[in-house]
Design goal:
2 copies of one chain form a homodimer. With about 400 residues, chain A is an alpha/beta fold. Chain A has 2 domains: about 250 residues, Aspartate Aminotransferase, domain 2, CATH 3.40.640; about 120 residues, Aspartate Aminotransferase, domain 1 (Alpha-Beta Complex), CATH 3.90.1150.10. Chain A is about 40% helix and about 15% strand. Chain A is built from 13 helices and 13 strands. In chain A, strand 12 and strand 13 form a beta hairpin. In chain A, helix 10 packs antiparallel against helix 13. The relative contact order of chain A is 0.16. The interface between A and B is large, with 80 and 80 residues.
């Protein structure tokens, strides 16, 4: 068995996205102990910069030492007690996963189902809240990675609070890419991932909990069913003290990488990052539409960092992705769940949201689809993108 | 906030240990998609090389995408059902953690307590098995990182099987450093970590399950309480198929690192690695004893990769560690739990188990202790180490 040397790819799928070169450099710095004073200073900086990324002053803000799915489980395992009724708004794969989490924590999931590709319908949530006045938490996905739809987190949270429910929000794909204001919007518990718009390597899940969420957790009657994710224990390590008590061995080098990606976010400015994601989305959209591809999600609910488009008639979608990967080292995403085989998901996340990636994707798609005799409009995509940027 | 540049340390604590430079190089290779065909080839190689490290042909062998504590939880959450009686042999911090895991899974933990610093007493386990003929699993720690004691895994597993119990074994500190033969010893479920004798970065937990363990899991009446760690789901991604179904986003770059550390293990040869750990331990031991320090663990039960020694009388142990770190960039470990403040834990794990580290540690200890007027024997440690190697 020999060392593994991956080909350099351009990552324009649903994540992981292109990682900033500076983040890869940081990742490879010498490993130090997880209780080293230097490491503890770095951890404090990570916390502070995550607070900036989430736009929160929540003390309980830190990265879970595992991927976004574990961040989701961290929120549910700590917040949900057996018998709790949880309203889950589901409009894609990750809403379904939330339901799984509720059930496995012994909670009762009341599902509010929306069509895949649409935003969460606030009226349906209102009806569910009226029908279930014993519900204690509302959970929903801010940015559905399986469909490319964004929901109105601010309004959904406000409505949940009117009905005395706490909120759990999935911000895996939105953090750093779309407007997200944890404190202004009063989000109680939130989780994200490092491998999307933060353009860090996959493997960590930033989370944040406000005072109300912490109260719910500290007033639990039953122990949190996960030792690894029990916030009462984790906070002995990630809490405010300068002396950290050992809980588990932190993923030291991955945290170097997250630190660097947050330094980059701070250098760019959060609002500038949101703006960049939107501008490159507009250019890609103009180009894709010029090619004749159409978006699955209504314009009002479209996630700039994840562009879900239908596949031209008669085209073997897997063959297109394969050719993009093999000939141009360009990864775009397949459909997932209900949209499997029906769409492509083209990501413009974090460092991948660059002009050069937009035109690479448009020209590669045009070349491959043209070569496969698909019915597309040739020679117009680049012009449309340039007009959008101008 | 600025980029983080850690000082280069020599890591001779209880882990993380020094990471092989080739592993850090691999870590920083370009991120590719977690469903990329190249990545899937690499995953298969990781599985195969983990089977070699564990000395097993178990199909269900893969790295959990989170640190060793999550690997422990993966074993317990999948193997233990509510009401199951589990015998836990505890002789340190990680036995206690096993109990926490059993309880949080709804199991009943029967504790077999041994003195910290001693191996698990097989007679006590036998008595517990006789007293609890309804027990279904025996769990114990092969190499207790909190004390430096190794237990006779082969004998303990054989005894458990005589009483129709399955076994869960913690091999976090033993894998790659001490003899461990999963198939020959008939271990049913086992977990480890990447940051000890594999000398990879922290953040992954290799696990392996045999047929009997898999049967226990697939015959469960209740769902596994963790979605993230549910083996029925994880295996859709890590299983034998060439088409992987998405479960969670794999920590791509950390897996590059693990791959490289396993290539290194294969190049050295597993038995050679065990031998190297033992030889450098003998030299360190000779030097530490020449200095006048004494081991906590009886010679027969001593873990070569973790040397737990008492602190010379009147010495401020924290001050010594601080000086070693600040003046010589050398990290050694403090005591944990019942041994806090009473011992040092000096690791010789993986890449850290090198001759240059042994003499650095001995000379730094001699210099600092001498400077603090501790009652030690000066000028003899290096000679003793050299004799041990010769």
């Amino acid at each position: 068995m020999k060392s593994f040397h991956p080909t350099v790819r351009t990552l324009m799928g649903p994540g992981p996205s292109d990682v900033y070169p500076r983040v890869l450099d940081a990742l490879a710095r010498p490993t130090i102990g997880h209780l080293d004073p230097q490491f503890i200073v770095m951890m404090n900086e990570v916390k502070e910069m995550l607070q900036y990324a989430f736009q929160t002053t929540n003390e309980l803000t830190f990265p879970v030492s595992a991927p976004g799915s574990a961040g989701m489980e961290c929120c549910f395992a700590n917040m949900v007690e057996p018998g709790d009724k949880i309203i889950v708004c589901s409009n894609g794969v990750f809403g379904i996963r939330m339901k799984e989490n509720v059930t496995r924590c012994g909670g009762i999931a009341v599902m509010v189902e929306d069509t895949w590709g649409e935003a969460v319908d606030i009226n349906k949530l209102e009806q569910a809240l009226k029908d279930n006045d014993d519900a204690v938490i509302v959970a929903f996905v801010h940015a559905e990675t399986s469909t490319g739809a964004i929901s109105d987190a601010k309004a959904l949270v406000a409505l949940a609070h009117e009905h005395d429910c706490l909120t759990i929000v999935d911000a895996v794909t939105s953090l750093g890419g779309s407007e997200l204001r944890v404190d202004d919007w009063n989000i109680d518990a939130i989780y994200s991932g490092t491998q999307k718009c933060l353009s860090c390597v996959p493997g960590l899940s930033p989370v944040s909990f406000n005072k109300a969420a912490q109260d719910k957790i500290s007033n639990r009657e039953s122990a949190v069913q996960s030792w690894f994710l029990d916030l009462n224990l984790v906070m002995g390590y990630w809490g405010q003290n300068t002396t950290r008590s050992y809980h588990h061995t932190a993923p030291v080098n991955s945290l170097y990488a997250l630190h660097e990606s947050l330094v980059l976010l701070q250098e760019e400015g959060l609002e500038n990052s949101w703006k960049r994601h939107d501008e490159n989305h507009q250019a890609l959209k103009a180009g894709l539409e010029a090619l004749g591809l159409s978006y699955v999600v209504h314009e009002d609910d479209r996630l700039p960092q994840l562009n879900t488009v239908t596949i031209p008639e008669g085209v073997d979608e897997a063959e297109v992705r394969k050719r993009l990967l093999n000939e141009f080292n360009l990864e775009i995403g397949a459909g997932l769940g209900a949209l499997a085989g029906k769409v492509w998901r083209i990501g413009l996340m974090g460092y991948a949201s660059r002009k050069e990636n937009v035109i690479l994707c448009l020209s590669a798609l045009e070349a491959v689809l043209g070569d496969m005799n698909a019915n597309i409009n040739k020679g117009v995509a680049l012009d449309a993108a340039m007009v959008a940027w101008s």
